Amino acid sequence: MSKEASYKDKKVITIGIVRELTGLTERQIRYYEERKLIFPERTNGGSRKYSFADIELLMDIAEKIEDGVQTFEIRQEMMKEKKAADAKLRKKMIQGQLNAQFGMRRI
Question: Under the GO molecular function aspect, what terms does this record hold (predicted)?
């Protein structure tokens, strides 16, 4: 299932542009990466590259931090959301396999 990545997911934006778009400092952005809240790609030269989806996530993180939520709590929430999404995808895949194997339809 190799779909081409959406433009929102392509990591092509430099940290300087991210800083301008979000109003965050480079230090804040790097801190969120250090706290494993954001995962930029690295170029061969070591520069960070972000996506539009990363920018949206950074803005959500900054808003939660401003509301007093700790980075640990944000990471836990993100992990719960990822587990729920993974479980939903797994269920869809199993249903697809059953449909293919037995011609079953979703009830």
Answer: DNA binding; DNA-binding transcription factor activity
Kindly state the DSSP code that residue 35 receives in the 8-state scheme. T
Global model pTM greater than 0.90: no
Tell me if 22 sits within 8 A of 55, measured CB to CB: yes
If asked whether residues 43 and 83 sit together in one domain, one would say no
pLDDT tens-digit map of 13-35: 999 999 999 999 999 999 999 99
Rounded CA-CA distance 77/50 in Å is 21
pLDDT of 57 reads: 96
Q: Compute CA distances 83 → 32, 33, 43, 88, 93, whole Å.
A: 21, 20, 29, 9, 15
Same domain (yes/no): 75, 65: no
What is the per-residue pLDDT across 84-99, written as a single tens digit (0 to 9) for each? Answer: 998 999 999 988 888 8
Q: Do 10 and 28 fall within a single domain?
A: yes
- The total number of structural domains in the chain stands at 2
Q: Where are the beta strands (DSSP E) in the chain?
A: 13-14, 41-42, 48-50
